[in-house]
Amino acid sequence: MGYLLPKSKLNTFLELLMHGSSFIAPVRRKKDDVVVFEELEGKTDLTRLDFTTNPQFTAKKFFMPAYEPLFTYNMKNQKLTDKKITARQRILFGLRLCDLNAVKIQDQLFINPQFTDDHYQAARENIFLVGWYCNTPPSKFCFCESMNLTHYYDLMLRDLPGKKDIYIDVGSPKGEILMRKAMKLKLKEHHEHVPKIRTPKKLKTHDIRKYFDHPKWQKTTESKCLSCQRCTTMCPTCMCFDIYDKTQTDLEHGTRERTWDSCHSKQFTRVAGDHYFRPDRTARFKHRIYHKIVYYPEIFGQVPMCTGCGRCIEQCPTQIDFVELINEMEDGK
Ligand code: SF4
Ligand code: SF4
Q1: Which residues are 155's β-sheet partners?
Q2: Does residue 20 sit in helix, strand or coil?
Q3: What is the pLDDT of residue 305?
Q4: Which of 111, 191, 194, 225 registers the highest number of CB atoms within 10 A of its CB?
Q5: Looking at residues 238-259, what average pLDDT do you find?
Q6: Residue bearing the CA closest to ligand 2, atom 4
């Protein structure tokens, strides 16, 4: 089920969606010419929309901020007070299918019957996902075709090549609710298949357990990985965090906080007795890749935890390309 939106009315459609909600979209930042997800101040900001590339930073901070206070404590009376969760209604517009599938993975991890993260859940329930379909992959590093992506959105907009319309695919009941905002446009109902995205770059296999001891891992990462953690910061599915207590000088009151962390950090695997589970860079690099491609689907029985967005390759300062590395192993090079 969907609608046809004349391309000439895209901005009017977005203005109607923006009404009464916070609206976050990919815009080119003036100060450094980088495309990022940013909250638009008003409809004049629509002129800053940019679909030429996948935003450099993902939208994950809108679900789980890089820094977040969880609760305060009072040690004297042994009382915990939850931080009030105030989640505004937000429309996240312009996410590509890779980033939408990243939200699906985060949802699976943070909103499940066994463990639900209240902070994540409150933010997520108030977010509408409006995707932007890739007729052409935005970067030569994209390899989503190999990552079994599914349709996971409230609405998906597809600029129909060679036609005057944008096809709006409704992917959920929340999408229908959102479409009511645009009722006065009287859009024509229409249905068409949203095709699979094709990418020139491909990951040749997910079956990489057999390569665990392959010497290429060490050869590449010992000489090139800086443990800088840029890859995990940029990755839309990386969600490791650290928890710490910030106690006030009275030594009675304090706040428990969480911040993003990274499995590429040596400190991340430090445990009591000063033991490090993954002391070397190769072990940490491999852990990231095996977690994404092997361990996660083994636990959740579904798709990998990597959506093929290519950011960790494009943004790596030494351009370590784990897809090429695995492909070379598969080719026996
Ligand atoms: S961005 Fe590259 S160099 Fe930095 S930790 Fe990740 S793989 Fe290593
Ligand atoms: S591992 Fe790399 S390619 Fe995969 S989702 Fe994360 S940043 Fe994107």
Answers
A1: 130, 170
A2: coil
A3: 97
A4: 225
A5: 95
A6: 306
Phi and psi, residue 69, nearest 5°: -75, 135
If one counts the domains in the chain, the total is 1
130 by DSSP, 3-state: which? strand
Q: Is the pLDDT of residue 58 over 80?
A: yes
Q: How far apart are CA 138 and CA 130, in angstroms?
A: 18
Q: Is the pLDDT of residue 84 over 90?
A: no
Q: What are phi and psi of 251, to 5 degrees?
A: 60, 20
Q: How confident is the model at residue 302, as a pLDDT?
A: 72
Indicate whether residue 287 lines ligand 1 (CB < 6 A).
Answer: no
Strand partners, 131: 95, 156
Q: How many angstroms separate the alpha carbon of residue 65 from the centre of ligand 1?
A: 22
Angle at 115 between CA 114 and CA 118, to 5 degrees: 140
Average pLDDT, the chain: 95
| Ligand closest to the CA atom of residue 102 | 2
User: For residue 53, how far is its CA from the centre of ligand 1 (angstroms)?
Assistant: 21
Sign of CA pseudo-dihedral 315, 155, 26, 167: positive
User: Residue 8: which domain range?
Assistant: 2-330
For the whole prediction, is pTM greater than 0.70?
A: yes
For the ranges 22-31, 80-89, 170-179, 240-249, the lowest mean pLDDT is seen at: 80-89
Q: Are 95 and 59 in contact (CB under 8 A)?
A: yes
The pLDDT score that the predictor gives to residue 173 is 97
pLDDT of 150: 95
d(CA 242, CA 239): 10
- The Cα–Cα gap between 173 and 72 comes to 37
Q: Give the span between the Cα atoms of 115 and 70, in whole angstroms.
A: 16
By most ligand atoms within 8 Å of CB, the mutation choice from 307, 314, 322, 324 for ligand 2 is 307
Answer yes or no: are the C-beta atoms of 185 and 16 closer than 8 Å.
yes
Chain-centre distance for alpha carbon 312: 12
250-280 pLDDT, tens digit each: 999 999 999 999 999 999 999 999 999 999 9
